[in-house]
Amino acid sequence: xxxxxxxxxxxxxxxxxxxxxxxxxxxxxxxxxxxxxxxxxxxxxxxxxxxxxxxxxxxxxxxxxxxxxxxxxxxxxxxxxxxxxxxxxxxxxxxxxxxxxxxxxxxxxxxxxxxxxxxxxxxxxxxxxxxxxxxxxxxxxxxxxxxxxxxxxxxxxx
Length: 158
What we know:
alpha+beta; 3-stranded antiparallel β-sheet; 7 helices
């Protein structure tokens, strides 16, 4: 059994830029993923107006996310991380096809969608949020390309 995740565990890691959100006229936000706890992310966004700034007491909002869903506070996120992620039937089905070795995402996703007869892109993203798969950008032409694999934990237990 894994060691419990505590605030100290969270503070021992860092956050890396994991993308950006566009809220249209309401502005945008930055998604940050924890470097050692892939199930944990945070969304930072500027407040929308003076009223919101006064209400939150800051010029930005920070929203903690576990397994792709809102977790409220950092303390709430830490508690949620101590409960194993729950995979839907669709996620479990897709995960069974994800190899333990690195594979180029686009080709994998296209082939699996054809095999299953449905799109799997969102499901792959949800599995990543739940820490079941990992991804990295690798050099490619004309630009870097995303690759995925099962996390080492999933490869040995899944």
